Amino acid sequence: MPRSAQDSERFVEREARIIRTTREIAEREGWPAVTVRRLAEEIGVSQPILYRHFPGGRDDIVGRVVMAGYAELATAMEVGGDGPGALPALIAAYLDFARAHPSTYEAMASARSGIAFASDDTPEVLRRGFELLTRAVGGVDARDRAVRAELLWSTLHGISQLAAHGRLDADLDGEREEAVASLFRRGASA
């Protein structure tokens, strides 16, 4: 039997609440604290209700957090537009996102998931984020732009992870971001 519009709205709202609560717990206490039982308790529903929304349980929920994180990151990286300040703005936005949402970023970078990267099955939101990187770094042709974008992404990921574990001097963040932009501005002739 089809759901009523009201039931469908409640279903969507509950899913959003599950994702939001998952992120809140993870950001506050880390991913080990996120369990289906804990989520059910926090939200005030039974575990079977959570499984009705996410049949794969915690892995499905984390997968949705990952996709939402990539969507937010892409939106944040769009702030710079296409002008001369685009690359430094994108770099700052990426690193700011990783600093502001360390557990979400951790899941985006390392959670087990069925999300396909660099393939025909790559979700649109990931393609959008990669396209932003590609446009920002330029290059002589599509292959060169893809390599440069992967290198920028890898660099930003490394900086994010080192900073998250206290391995980098936070007082140097601005200079580090400008140095990365400078490296990728060179040879971006296209």
Automatic annotation (TrEMBL):
One of its GO terms (molecular function) is transcription cis-regulatory region binding. Transmembrane segments: none annotated. Keywords: DNA-binding, Transcription, Transcription regulation. The keyword Repeat does not apply. InterPro entries: Homeodomain-like_sf (IPR009057), HTH-type_TetR-like_transc_reg (IPR050109), HTH_TetR (IPR001647), MT1864/Rv1816-like_C (IPR025996), Tet_transcr_reg_TetR-rel_C_sf (IPR036271). Residues 18-61 form the HTH tetR-type domain. Pfam families: TetR_C_33, TetR_N. The keyword Amino-acid biosynthesis does not apply. Residues 88-180 form the HTH-type transcriptional regulator MT1864/Rv1816-like C-terminal domain. This is TetR/AcrR family transcriptional regulator. It comes from Leifsonia sp. NPDC080035.
